Amino acid sequence: MAATARAFKVAFKCTGCGRCCTGKGGVAYVNSSEVAAMAEHLALPKATFAKTYLRSVNGATALRQTDDDSQCIFLDGKRCSVYPARPTQCRTYPFWPQQLISKYDWTLAANECEGILLDAPSPETITPDAHILKEVVIHEVHRSGENLTYDDIDELVSELEPEMLDAFQEEVDAKYQRTILHEDDEILVMDSFLDGLPPTRSLHFVDRLELVQSEILLNEDGSINDAALALDVHKGLCVGLALLPTERLHNLRIGLLGAGAGVLPTFLQRHLRGEVLMDAVDPSRAMLSAGQRFFHLIPSDRLSLHEAMGEAYVARQPDASLDWLVLDVEDGNAAPTELRAPPASFLTPAFMADASRVLTGDGSLAINVIFPKASGDADASLEMLRVLLSPHFASIYVLALPKNAVVFAAKRERTEAPTALVNDGSIGRPLAATIREQLAASTLRRLGE
Fold first, then answer.
1. pLDDT tens-digit profile of 260-284?
2. Rounded to an integer, what distance in angstroms lies between the CA atom of residue 334 and that of residue 45?
3. Is residue 4 assigned to a domain?
4. Which of 26, 49, 250, 422 could pair with 274 in a Cys bridge, judged by C-beta atoms 3.0 to 4.6 Å apart?
5. Phi-psi bin for 302: left (phi > 0), alpha (psi -120 to 50), beta?
6. Is residue 3 part of a domain?
7. Which DSSP string do the residues of 3-50 spell out, in sequence order?
């Protein structure tokens, strides 16, 4: 982030839009000195302030969100009602170190903050490096747990020698690192080593950088960790194996639509011990190529790669030729009121009939569901899927995930949803653990009940 290290210019001017204070799951951490300052600003006893406005998140104190979890409790219209005494985390935004690692991160931040200027109109609008470094230092000191307000830390930082600031900069740089492995007009692949998070390798479309298309965990030395999955949706999709008859797991035929860089099919191929014939299908040659170069996607007699549209692949399959069909396909051009996954072309009676046709009598379907951006009514989307699936599938379930859901549809009637995986040795330990942990963490419930 120092002038010698940052390969991009940073420009920011707050517009007072309030977007940094909105969003489900937002967490603004505070310490007791900041609590005292905010309570004084509102002329409230500290105990009353704490009872009304504070909560515990991961063992730390944070400001409450509104009841619908849509924004900070202190956001009034577009303004903060404790603005003069707002917490350090808020005052240092957007100059957080994780947002300044690379142009990629700064671009992502710009999607949430209209005050970030990716194309600075003039040199005067560029934020000086000295100011950025000061804000980063203040943010990290606060994050370390020091019981100080922004002004307290600012006063201390102003007394530091430049050499000490440079040393701090080097320390921060070492804690937040990204390495671009590949970038072209279509995709970007990078490794990320971020403080407090497991290291990962991820793939993104350059026109939708904010969306992680594929991601794997790395070991500390940068090698691929093939014993675990990084993405919740991949873990959730694996639960679909628990809906299949146990004996079927010894001889599986799988069609996986939306293979991307091949993270899920590679994991399944490694940890399904029985006879497996798996087709990994994706329309993007760049994605499949990147999978082979960077994600250990290796074709074999158990795993075949198909550059094709998912609908066309299904249409070509013989009747009862698959035991398990996985739909992990996202529509990057979906309207705000439409499901982002699966695409509209999959949400037709004709396609669902075709999906049912290619499945065996006890086969099942697993669908990654990403709800519309402009609607908070997930139940309406799930009901639409239930109505679409029910003519062809006897049992339909949903597994709620933090950011989306997975819908499962089994052709054979089940009296109840599986609550555990029956593993007779056909599934390796990492895959079996993934399924057990997902079933323990989220309720698999029947749709329509």
1. 999 999 999 999 999 999 999 999 9
2. 49
3. no
4. 250
5. alpha
6. no
7. TTT--S--BB------GGGBSTT---B--HHHHHHHHHHTT--HHHHH
